[in-house]
Structure formats: C-alpha cells, structure tokens
Design brief:
The chain has about 250 residues and is mainly alpha-helical. The protein has two domains: about 70 residues, no CATH class; about 150 residues, no CATH class. The chain is about 75% helix and about 0% strand. It is built from 13 helices and no strands. α3 packs antiparallel against α4, α8 packs parallel to α11 and α11 runs antiparallel to α13. The two termini are about 15 Å apart. The relative contact order is 0.11.
Length: about 250
C-alpha cells in the first residue's frame, strides 16, 4: 500500500519513457504471427526431448523456490544440467558453445567477489556509516532526501541487491532513525522501496541484469546511459512521492 502511488506512476511511465528513449526498430509487423505459425508447423509435434526439458525446467523452479531451505540453488542447477546431459536433451558441446552464458558466469562472479571483498574489509560499512552520520546534521526533510538518494546511488558499487541489503541497510537504519523527529517506520519503508528500483542502474545491478546485458541487443555505452537516465526519474519519484506519502501512510 505504501509503494502503490510510486508503483502506479512508474508502471504507467516506464513503457512510454523507454519507447521515447530507445524506440524499437520494428514498430509494425503484421506478418510476425504468420511467420511464427509457419515455423511451428515446420517444427512438427512436441518431441520427447522437449517434454523432458519442460519437466526439468519445472523441477528446477520448484527446487529453487521450494527447496532453498534444504538444498543450494547451485546444487539444483547442477543436478538438472546433469540430468539434461544424461537424457541427451542437450550435448556437452551445446553447453560449451553457449559463450554468452560462460561470459555472464565469469563476469558476474568476478563482480560479486569484488563487492564481497569491499564488504569483508569493512569499506562499505565504513562508507555507509560516515555518510549516514554526516547526513544527520542537516534538517529533517533534506536529511531524508539525502539519505535515500545516497543509499540508491551507492548501488553502483554493488553487484547484488541482496549484498547491499546485508551490508548497508542495517547501517542506515541504525544511524539515521537515531536522530530525533525522524519517522523511523517511514524511513525504513522508503529504503526498502528503493531496493526494488535500483536494479535498473547498471549491467550488474541485479541477478537478471547480466543476462539481459549479455544478449547483445543494447551496446555497453547505451546500457549505462539508459540506466542512469531511467534511474533518475525512478529516484525522483521515490523522493518526491514516496517520502511524503510514506510518512503520512506510516502514521
């Protein structure tokens, strides 16, 4: 309920802004439906491999969602890939040939390791604590705006929203609400809302981001530029609409 005003506005504005900033090359294609129907006819009936693949995909989703308490998602993925190989749904050469997947694995693993390294040596907690401490010296509303904006922009240093949540959210929640007159519940809610928006910023901002980026449809320079351009109105809506509404909503 607290996020509803922000969510409705961004839900309506995002497609329009995206279309204006990065318009699709193909805007009308009535023949696509006919082409897709023809391709399906050429493919023929569903094969045993395709059915096996569908069952394994559902099993992987069930394992990731329902079995995370007892089994690692990595173990689930490796088990499903192993069954795919044993059942000859895919061949090992098919896996080796998927260069984009290997690129995402190496690149994203490196970024996560770097972010964890910054957290392990205490840099991120130190930076967050220093930033939050300095913000507490300014008036209430500017302080809330500065704290939320800083928490949002700092995500450029993280390769995971979960990592930022673990490293910095407790720091901000301890430092800022300790000041008198700060609406602790509203401030907490707005920070949590920001976690749902910051995944747009960089090619590594969230777990799905490297997959979209590695598809190659958007060049690197444009990906970064579009992330900053789209991130600015997201942050503006969070500050201009989210803070006042959440303060009223939390009370």
């Amino acid at each position: 309920m607290g996020f509803l005003p922000i969510g409705i506005l961004l839900f309506a504005a995002t497609p329009l802004v995206s279309y204006f900033l990065y318009a699709p090359e193909v805007k009308r294609a009535e023949e696509v439906a006919k082409w897709a129907g023809g391709e399906l006819a050429i493919m023929g009936r569903v094969t045993r491999k395709e059915l096996t693949m569908a069952v394994l995909a559902v099993a992987a989703l069930v394992g990731w969602i329902g079995g995370s308490r007892w089994i690692s998602p990595v173990t689930v993925a490796l088990a499903v890939i192993s069954v795919m190989l044993l059942s000859r749904v895919v061949k090992w050469n098919d896996i080796l040939a998927n260069r984009q997947a290997w690129s995402v694995l190496v690149w994203f693993a490196t970024l996560v390791a770097m972010a964890e390294g910054l957290s392990n040596v205490g840099f991120l907690s130190w930076f967050g604590a220093r930033a939050a401490t300095h913000m507490t010296r300014i008036p209430l509303i500017p302080m809330l705006v500065a704290a939320v904006a800083a928490f949002f922009v700092i995500h450029y240093l993280f390769a995971s929203i979960t990592a930022q949540t673990n490293a910095l959210l407790p720091v901000f929640l301890l430092a800022v609400p300790s000041v008198n007159d700060v609406p602790a519940k509203a401030f907490t809610l707005v920070l949590v809302y920001s976690l749902d928006l910051m995944g747009i910023l960089t090619p590594y901002a969230s777990e799905p981001a490297p997959i979209w980026y590695s598809s190659g449809y958007i060049p690197t320079k444009k990906f970064w530029r579009l992330g900053a351009i789209m991130g600015a109105p997201y942050l503006f809506m969070l500050l201009a609409v989210g803070i006042p509404f959440t303060i009223a909503f939390a009370h």
